[in-house]
Design a protein that fits this description.
Length: 50
């Protein structure tokens, strides 16, 4: 595990904070999607008038 961690640090050392931030945002969006949060401004609103 230590060797793998060192390799990751060498490869992604300068970009690691931005990668982790993106990963956190992705997890947050996934949890919102699973929760069924309807407050998303991009959701489609359908009018059901007869």
């Amino acid at each position: 595990m230590l060797i793998v961690g060192l390799i990751v640090l060498l490869l992604f050392g300068t970009r690691l904070p931005s990668v982790m931030r993106s990963l956190g945002e992705g997890i947050t969006e996934f949890k919102k999607g699973m929760k069924g949060n309807d407050s998303d401004p991009n959701t489609r609103i359908e009018d059901h008038r007869d």
